[in-house]
Amino acid sequence: MAHRLAPSVPALRPKELVPPRVVYLVSTNIHKYLEAREVVASYNLSLAFLRDDVPEFQHSDVVEIAKWGARWAADKWDLPVLVEDTGLFIQALGGFPGPYASYVLRTIGLTGVLKLLDGVEDRRAYFKTALAFCDGREAEPVVFTGEAWGQIALEARGAGGFGYDPIFVPDGGDGRTFAEMSREEKNALSHRGKAFRAFSEWFRSYRGLTA
Ligand code: IMP
Q1: Domains along the chain?
Q2: Which of 56, 86, 131 to mutate to test the pocket of ligand 1 (most atoms within 8 A of CB)?
Q3: 174 is an active site residue
Q4: Has residue 1 got a pLDDT over 70?
Q5: Which residue's CA lies nearest to atom 17 of ligand 1?
Q6: Cβ contacts of residue 24 below 8 Å, gap of 6+?
Q7: Residue nearest atom 20 in ligand 1 by C-alpha distance
Q8: pTM higher than 0.90 for the full model?
Q9: Measured distance CA(32)–CA(178) in Å, rounded
Q10: Which residue in 61, 75, 78, 85 is the catalytic one?
Q11: What is the pLDDT of residue 3?
Q12: pLDDT of 72 higher than 90
């Protein structure tokens, strides 16, 4: 005979079933997840991949885009969620493509961006990641950011990474593009590595973890 739970057992919310060291990255980008998972693991935390297409709120500030996305994902799943948004800001182009980096990559691509910089000497640029954490439905998002400055290379180099990695030479490296580095090397210098380290430190104390 099938057993039913006594009606007096209250239903737990999804977020209450999640172990304290676990947090969900809501994204369709597995590359972001594979990078972030390594950073988070080095703090004895566990990053789960919740594959979902977070609608992209149009805004000039990646912080607002990530916050809006985290609220959307937390409302939908009622889990401790992270949503990140990254922009690429090229100085000589007045900060273009900024938060529209994904649209620009899909349309003109790396070749198009390199063409825009043809003959341009100042190739300074930075990535900015905004990472928003929301602890389930109705929670206010907490935001962490990370920036990585560097140069747009003269041509695409390397087969690793994703997106703009083949044309971005970070400061503090040895002249290689992100696409020519291992995941660990990229994490040590990258916008995403910085944002996820800031989050992990904060999250450990938020959860009261000591080990
Ligand atoms: P979004 O955060 O997914 O909106 O990313 C915007 C665009 O930047 C996408 O085209 C990504 O492929 C690209 N992108 C995001 N993060 C990185 C990165 O770490 N390296 C290179 N390109 C990136």
Answers
A1: 18-206 (3.90.950.10)
A2: 86
A3: no
A4: no
A5: 163
A6: 18, 47, 48, 49, 50, 77, 79, 80, 81, 82
A7: 165
A8: yes
A9: 13
A10: 85
A11: 65
A12: yes
